[in-house]
Amino acid sequence: MSHDHVHGANFGVRGSAFLAVGGYRPIATGEDRDLWFRLLDAGFRGVQPLNLTVRTSRGAGAGWAG
């Protein structure tokens, strides 16, 4: 599957790639999408493995922990 969408909740990046593009910028929203496009522009490639399972913790209870 190929598309230009990235979802920050399931977004994994190698530390070296993250540092190579300067990490997250201090912007109010869309920092995951911004990082994604800067990685692609820098020549990194994105993959979307369809056979992975993501597990999360519900330690904060339902809703935003904020």
TrEMBL record:
SUPFAM superfamilies: Nucleotide-diphospho-sugar transferases. It comes from the Bacteria. InterPro entries: Nucleotide-diphossugar_trans (IPR029044). This is Uncharacterized protein. It comes from Kribbella italica.
